[in-house]
Structure formats: structure tokens, C-alpha cells
Amino acid sequence: MEAKTKDLWVFVETKEDGSAKNVGIELLSPGRTIADKQGGALVALVVGCGVDQAVEEAATHGADKVVVVDSEEFKEYSTDAYAAALTTLIEKYGPASVLIGATPNGRDLGPRVSCRLNTGLTADCTGLDVDDETGCVCWTRPAFGGNLMAVIMCPDHRPQMGTVRPGVFKKPAASGQKAEIVHEDFHFPAEDIRTKLLENIQEAADELVDLEGADIIVSGGRGVGGPEGFKVLQELCDALGATLGCSRAAVDAGWISHSHQVGQTGKTVGPKLYIACGISGAIQHLAGMSSSDYIVAINKDADAPIFGVADYGIVGNLFDVVPALTAEIKKRKA
């Protein structure tokens, strides 16, 4: 399809309580930058049931307009209903670009919609920009197993579409300016929804690791030496009120569960403080944590790549450094 406007749309996914998932609000930040560079408006698309809270969040966090579909058939996510809603509205309004969070639902929805619109989609992006010469969105994502970062553009088809990992961008601050809200009366026949949610099974409590929402993360890699090494890091976490993370190497070795993993095949995080202990800094890991406000690296190899992105580096054995750091923090809090 051809773009009718220069607008950029952000799909704001909703939770069961009708509030917005963080990634949708986070994407309003790069969305604002791209929309301004393209000379269009920033539009948030909210689809769900009882989504007033999500609409309010989008309307007060930088969107110029919020397009809303609020109907019973969208109470639970289904590929059929949601793909139909997005396709219909994108065809109606004709935005130039569309951002979708790379959540499980977003990863299902994005390719479906892009295929129906006969356009491309760049998946799992970790960076966004606009090419000054062509005006195309520059989608940055890990490629070749995470060994390099590829920049992809879609010059011939519209809209330009991509999914972006949660935690890559910071949520924009709420502003006094409120967006225009447009309600669309879109309905999808319930009998045409080919899937049905039978039961919600909650994960075990010890598996619910909120890395994406953590302000402080202490992560361990191959250098922790084994499962026992994470006990030392957990003590630092307890002293700081931090969340325990890890690299893929530690998960592959069976030392800690995948729910703690940061990186290309784990979670993308952006905490205020990220402490990397015994992590060399492979590009797969850096892709998941380089947007942290402050990065502290502890590694006995002075040439480790992690020091290239660190704000503060400590060259030393983590089993000497971390306990000393934990003791000092406890002493100051006493």
C-alpha cells in the first residue's frame, strides 16, 4: 500500500487490567523522534477491552493522537481479531511507519499484519533512526547469530514496520499536553476467531524475574565459575535491592535459569545501574544491556570487551571485589 501520511504509529499493547504494557509507552520516545524527522504526527494505537487507562497513558506520554478500538472481542489477544483490526486501520489512515513491541503477542502480530499489507518487517530491533538522504527508518538488529549489528531499510513499500524489544528505550516523561483521542467502531465476529483461551497458568513464583522493570541489576557470566558463584552475586543484590541477571554462557552451562538471562536471546534491559561480573561482553550480551544508565564492569581480564561500554571498570577477581563491595554497602546502610 502507499502511505497517505507521514505519520508514525505505535501499537500500545494492553494488560488484562486495561493498562498499557511498558514497551508501548517506551516506543513513544523513539516514535517522537522519527515522526518529527519524517514531518508527521505520532499516533498511538490502543486495541483491547476496557482500555481507558492505557489510552490515558498514551495520551499523556507524547502521542499527538490516540486511535482506540475498545470492544469485548479484544479482551483476550487473538491473532485473527487483532491482525484484522490493525490491518483495517493502517489501510484506512495510511501511516508511513509502524512500531510494535517485540513481546510474544507483538512477535505474532507484526508479521501477520505486514504480510497482509504487502510490506516488510524488521524483527527484534535494538535501535532506530532515520536516514537523512532517503527519509527511511533505519532499523538496527543483531544478525548472524548476534555477531554483528545490521541496519535495515525498507525503501520501496509502506508502511515501514518493525518490532522493537522491550527495555531498549526509556519511557518518555508524562507531559501536560494531552493527545486527541479518536474512537474507531471496529468489530470482529467472535465465530471467526479460531483460537480460544482455555486456561491461564501462572509461572512458579521463583521464575517470575522482573529484569525489565528493575532499577539495579547485578549479572554474572562465565567468570562466576558455577552455580555457587551466583550466591556471592545474590548477596550483593540483597544489599543493593537489585535483581539477579546473567549472560547466556551461564544459562547454557546450567548454572542458573533462563528467566535471569540478559541479551539477544534473553531480556533487553535498561536499568539505572547494571553491574556485570565475570562477563566478557560478547555482542549478544551487549545488545541487551547497553542502554543502561550506568554500567559497572568487574572482570579480571583488562582487555575484555565489556570495558568498552562500561562507565566504571574494576580489573580484578570478582570473588575478591564483590564481597568487599557488598560489605562496604552494608556498612554504609547500617
What does it look like?
Helix content is 28%, strand content 23%. The chain is of the alpha/beta class. It has two domains: 8-192, HUPs (Rossmann fold); 205-333, Rossmann fold, CATH 3.40.50.1220. The strands form three sheets. A seven-stranded parallel β-sheet has the order 5-9-4-1-2-3-10, with helices on both faces. Strands 12-11-13-14-15 form a five-stranded parallel β-sheet. Helix 6 packs parallel to helix 9.
What is the topology?
Blueprint: E1 8-12, H1 22-26, H2 28-38, E2 42-48, H3 52-59, E3 65-70, H4 79-93, E4 97-101, H5 104-116, E5 121-125, E6 127-130, E7 137-143, E8 148-152, E9 160-164, E10 180-183, E11 216-220, H6 229-240, E12 243-246, H7 248-252, E13 273-277, H8 283-289, E14 294-299, E15 312-315, H9 318-333
Parallel strand pairs: 1-2, 1-4, 2-3, 3-10, 4-9, 5-9, 11-12, 11-13, 13-14, 14-15
Antiparallel strand pairs: 6-7, 7-8
Helix pairs in contact: 4-5, 6-9
Short recap of the structure:
The protein is α/β, with parallel strands linked by helices and 334 residues long. The chain contains nine helices and 15 strands. The strands form three sheets. Strands 5-9-4-1-2-3-10 form a seven-stranded parallel beta sheet, with helices on both faces.
Oligomer: single chain
The CATH class name of the largest domain reads Alpha Beta
**CATH homologous superfamily caption of the largest domain:** HUPs
How many domains is the backbone divided into?
Answer: 2
Helix content: 25-40%
